[in-house]
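Human:
Focus on the backbone:
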Amino acid sequence: MTDTVVETTAPKSVGPGKVKSIALNIIPPALFGALVLGGWYFISYVMLSENRRFLLRPPDKVLTEGFLDWGGTGGMSEMLQSLWSSTKVAGIGLFLAILIGLFLAVLMSQAVSVEKALFPFLVTLQAVPILAIVPLISFWWGTGQTSRVVVCIIIALFPIIVNTLFGLQSAEKGMHDLFTLHHVNRVTRLRKLMFPAALPALFAGLRISAGLSVVGAIVGDFFFGRGEVGLGQLIKRFASRLQGEELLTSVILSAGLGVAVFLLFTWLQNKAIGKWSDRAGLV
């Protein structure tokens, strides 16, 4: 008669290192958030008098009269519709900026003369204040959503080009020599050597431009008011009417959209390079 040994696998326990990592990711932001809320209440109720409290409404008023108010003009339902409109504009602008930026970065990486010819003008485009070219954008593309997308492209384009170009040029010289020794063509060199080396810098540029595209969508709403109402138009309206609760709600929604897009590209970065990048898991 043989004895049957049944092996049981104990449930995996969370080690102290994992607990410490989770605590470090949660506790500091929670403490800082509590400090911000405390300062917010202090400014609203202590530093501001009753007749000046509209300048910074307290958090509980923002919650009840902003986030929890779903009816009427300026309610949460209208804000969510405007949020969706701004999200579409930011998404389209970012997508086009990525296509243009990758194309120009690849082109510049393949020829030094092209890089020297284009780079000064790209820096100039980045340095020109968007206010200075708003009349030109309005004259060429009107005052609707197309102009808002153009603003997003202009604001988000430069970081993609600079970071991608830096990444493409960061491949090791020894690896380039090895590819040359085997008579590898430009396309294969780009696909198997330069692009893998460029991924960390590329995603760094994408994360920066993702937030900037949201800024471009909000800024575009301020100047181009035709078409769907975006968050920028709501912010402009609430500010002119001194509706502090609704104004702060719109600002918080705008910030939340920027954070969400940033976290999306952080997740994509971890999926793309998480297996070999030491910085992949860090936000």
Observations:
- DSSP finds ten helices and no strands in the chain.
